[in-house]
C-alpha cells in the first residue's frame, strides 16, 4: 500500500474532509492587493494555504498556471511546494504520459526532483507509458478516466465493440495496474450520474474528483459516491470557486478571511455528506 495513500487516508479520517485545494493561480485573476507584493502569485498561494490548511487534505498544483509564465512561474511553483504543510498531500496536475523512456523522465521530474506525492496522467498511450509512474509504489498516480468536460463524449464515452464506453475499459485496466496500491482515477464531479457505478466497479482505487464549484458538479454526491466503504480514498478538488472569492479586498487579511470562510463551508458540507 502506497505510503502517500495511507497518509491521505489518515488525514481524511482525522479531519473528516476530502478537500483538495486547487492552486490554479491564474496571475490575471489575482486580486490587486497581491500585486503590491514582490511575488504576487507566491503571496496569493501562501494566503490560500494559510486560509485552508485546517480543512485541506491535499493541494493540487495545476502546472499550466505556472508553466505559462516560464522560469518565474516554475520558481513560484517550487516555493509554493515548500510552503504546503507536511501533513498534506501535494498533487501535480500535469496530465503526463509518453513512450516509456520519456515517461520515466516525467516521473523523475515530478516524483524525485519536485517530490510531489501524486501526479495526474493520461491513459491514451497504454500501459508502457504509465508503468514508469506506477513504479513509484509509495506515490499516487491518478489516471484520467471520465473527465468533467464536454469533450469526454468525444473519446471517453464512446462505445467500443463490446457496447461499453471506453472509460470502463480504462477503469478495468487501472484496477489491474493497482498491484502496488498506488493507482487512482480522475472522475469529474459533473459526471455524478456515473460516479456511483464507477466506485462500485473500483472499490480499491483512490479517486480524484474535480468539477465542484465553477463547473457545477455536486459536492454532496461527489463525497457520498466517490469515497470508499471506509469513507476514505477520495479527494474532491475545488479551485476557482474557492481561491477567487467575489469582491474587492482592502488587505491580504481580508482576502484570507473570505477564503477561510469558504473553505470551512466546504469542510462542513463534506462532514455532513460523509
Ligand atoms: O485532472 C484534473 O484535475 C481535472 C480533470 C477533469 O476531468 N476536470 C478538471 O477540471 N480537472 C482539473 O481540476 C481543476 C478544476 O478547477 P475548477 O473548475 O476551477 O474547480 C482544474 O485544475 C482542471 O484542470
TrEMBL record:
SMART domains: OMPdecase. It comes from the Bacteria. The keyword Lyase applies. InterPro entries: Aldolase_TIM, OMPdecase_type-2, OMPdeCOase_dom, RibuloseP-bd_barrel. SUPFAM superfamilies: Ribulose-phoshate binding barrel (SSF51366). Residues 18-255 form the Orotidine 5'-phosphate decarboxylase domain. Its EC number is 4.1.1.23. GO terms for biological process: 'de novo' pyrimidine nucleobase biosynthetic process; 'de novo' UMP biosynthetic process. Keywords: Decarboxylase, Lyase, Pyrimidine biosynthesis. The keyword Lyase applies. One of its GO terms (molecular function) is orotidine-5'-phosphate decarboxylase activity. It is an enzyme of class 4 (lyase). Belongs to the OMP decarboxylase family. Type 2 subfamily. This is Orotidine-5'-phosphate decarboxylase. It comes from Chlorobium phaeobacteroides (strain DSM 266 / SMG 266 / 2430).
Amino acid at each position: 500500500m502506497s505510503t502517500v495513500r495511507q497518509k491521505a487516508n489518515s488525514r481524511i479520517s482525522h479531519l473528516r474532509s476530502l478537500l483538495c485545494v486547487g492552486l490554479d493561480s491564474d496571475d490575471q485573476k489575482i486580486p490587486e492587493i497581491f500585486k503590491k507584493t514582490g511575488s504576487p502569485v507566491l503571496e496569493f498561494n501562501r494566503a490560500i494555504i494559510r486560509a485552508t490548511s485546517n480543512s485541506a487534505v491535499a493541494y493540487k498544483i495545476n502546472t499550466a498556471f505556472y508553466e505559462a509564465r516560464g522560469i518565474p512561474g516554475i520558481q513560484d511553483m517550487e516555493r509554493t511546494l515548500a510552503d504546503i504543510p507536511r501533513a498534506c498531500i501535494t498533487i501535480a496536475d500535469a496530465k503526463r504520459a509518453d513512450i516509456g523512456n520519456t515517461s520515466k523522465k516525467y516521473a523523475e521530474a515530478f516524483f524525485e526532483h519536485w517530490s510531489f506525492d501524486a501526479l495526474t496522467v493520461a491513459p491514451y498511450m497504454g500501459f508502457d507509458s504509465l508503468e514508469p509512474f506506477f513504479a513509484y509504489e509509495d506515490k499516487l498516480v491518478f489516471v484520467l478516466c471520465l473527465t468533467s468536460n464536454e469533450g469526454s463524449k468525444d473519446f471517453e464515452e464512446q462505445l467500443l465493440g463490446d457496447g461499453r464506453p471506453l472509460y470502463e475499459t480504462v477503469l478495468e485496466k487501472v484496477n489491474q495496474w493497482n498491484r502496488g496500491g498506488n493507482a487512482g482515477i480522475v472522475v469529474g464531479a459533473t459526471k455524478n450520474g456515473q460516479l456511483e457505478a464507477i466506485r462500485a466497479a473500483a472499490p480499491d482505487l483512490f479517486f480524484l474528483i474535480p468539477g465542484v464549484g465553477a463547473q457545477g458538479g455536486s459536492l454532496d454526491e461527489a463525497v457520498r459516491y466517490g469515497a470508499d466503504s471506509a469513507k476514505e480514498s477520495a479527494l474532491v478538488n475545488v479551485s476557482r470557486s474557492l481561491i477567487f472569492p467575489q469582491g474587492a479586498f482592502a488587505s491580504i487579511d481580508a482576502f484570507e478571511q473570505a477564503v477561510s470562510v469558504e473553505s470551512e463551508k466546504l469542510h462542513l458540507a463534506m462532514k455532513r455528506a460523509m
